Amino acid sequence: MSDSILIAGADEDAGHGVRRQPTFAQRLLRKAVLGRLRGLRSGAILMRDALGEELLGNAAGALGTVPIVVHDPAFWSVLGRGGDVGAGEGYVTGQWSCTELVRLLQLFVRDRDVLLDVDQTLWSLPRRALLRVGQWLRRNSRRGSKRNIADHYDLGDDLFAHFLDPSMTYSAAWFEQEGQSLADAQAAKLRRLCQLVELQPTDHLLEIGTGWGSLAVCAAKQFGARVATTTISQNQFAAARSRVQAAACGDRVELLLRDYRDLTGTFDKVVSCEMVEAVGAKYLPTFLKVCAQRLRPGGVLGLQAITIAHQHYGEALRAVDYIRRHVFPGSFIPSVQAIVGAAARHTDLRIEFVEDFGHHYATTLQRWREAVVSAPAPFLERGGPGLLRAWQYYFAYCEAGFRERHIGVCHLRFRRAGG
User: Please, which of 76, 188, 214, 373 could form a disulfide with 167 given CB 3.0 to 4.6 Å?
Assistant: First the structure.
């Protein structure tokens, strides 16, 4: 996985204390970064490294004081050159640690201007330019999509099974009550998606993005619909086939290994759960056109989509953060307005319903993160401490965004004209 969540070269001895003194250049970078961090308003960072301890920001802020230990002064070079992406890479390779990682990342989301001040410096300009070129090279053509999906989803089912519920549902759950199990919350979400499109036993449903098959099985078994579901992940295709067979609904579920752009046929309903983010901004109109073309007149499209506040959408499109670089290459996070606007400009789909449930995603990510932390052996055995830290950082990074409502997750229902 050259561009994936595993970054090679992690220091297995990281986290056991502060080591060597920084070079002159690293001292200059450290001074510049700390100067910017003093502008934090919503909380403070207690920074400790080989040069001592400094309190940066407002300790009386709502998020309190978060401790950070820099174990390797090379972190200052990595951070200076890489900004946000460099910070994540430094965590994965053990150059720094934090016992309150989610709260730290919440602080940077809340005081976003300070984060941008650290991220977008003259020192980081060359790396930022290279990252944008890299994202362009990972654009979601048919060939590019297949590579991007494989880089994340074909890691191995055993790793995903370690933190997902038994249905292997890798998207936001819907918690109907406090303390509900992840399995029950995911089952509730699957039912809500079927209800979102008003699924009936007489319907022929198209699902774009099979995952491990849980939604297709739910639609067939619990709602009695006929289902065609497509994926471009060889691994997920094989696993979904086994799941459908085990559920004894093979007569109602057709599994396809096909790019969404190559689909044919007409369906009563179309549903797609957290797939739109993977198509890339350039292909958003194409994706929505395909959804409309596959629907009969009057048919219904249901989307579950991770979204970003519209005022930050343009900025997010231009930037390459840690998630786009190392977790989901080629991805983007649309705003609700971007989705609805593209549908209005390029299709005859009309929006009927939007509901945000981002706080449920924060809880989902917390459950996944806790599962990994409490029993890390599968990750350590597969990729050592670096792989474990990579998944911890990924989950914490996303959880912080949802907790601060910088990003959300929405159910959207569209209806095609006519019918």
Answer: 214
Q: What is the mean pLDDT of residues 213-223?
A: 98
| Same-domain check for residues 245 and 108 | no
Range of the domain at 163: 142-416
Instruction: Find where tokens 């959880």 sit.
Output: 399
Residue in this structure with the two tokens 């038994």, named with its chain if needed: 166
Q: Is residue 7 part of a domain?
A: no
What pLDDT sits at residue 135? 64
- The model scores a pTM over 0.85: yes
At residue 16, φ and ψ (nearest 5 deg) are -115, 30
b or e along 297-322 (b: 16 or more beta carbons within 10 Å of the residue's beta carbon)? Answer: eebbbbbbbbbbeeeebeebbebbbb
* CA 287 to each of CA 277, 279, 280, 346, 408: distance values in angstroms, whole numbers, following the listed order: 11, 7, 9, 10, 21
Degrees to nearest 5, angle at CA 222 with 219 and 225? 45
Kindly state whether residue 3 falls inside one of the protein's structural domains. Answer: no
Q: Residue 5 phi/psi, 5° resolution?
A: -70, -20
In angstroms, how far apart are the furthest CA atoms of the chain? 72
Those residues with Cβ within 8 angstroms of residue 335's Cβ, 6 or more apart along the chain or in another chain? 307, 308, 309, 310, 313
CATH number of the CATH domain containing 332: 3.40.50.150
Nearest in space to 119 (alpha carbons), one of 81, 91, 92, 93: 81
Q: For residues 360 and 99, what is the distance between their CA atoms, to the nearest angstrom?
A: 23
Pair type for strands 65-70 and 204-208: unpaired
15 has a pLDDT exceeding 50: no
Same domain, 128 and 236: no
CA angle 140, 87, 51 (to 5 degrees): 170
Residue 389 has pLDDT above 60, yes or no: yes
Residue with tokens 């292909």: 283
Q: Read off the pLDDT band of 149 (50, 70, 90).
A: low
Strand order in the sheet with 96-97: 52-57, 44-49, 65-70, 96-97
pLDDT band at 17 (very low <50, low <70, confident <90, very high): low
Q: How far apart are CA 191 and CA 35, in angstroms?
A: 50
**Same domain? 284 vs 405:** yes
CB 120 within 8 A of CB 84: no
**334 and 395 share a domain?**
yes
- Residue 163 near residue 372, CB atoms below 8 Å: yes
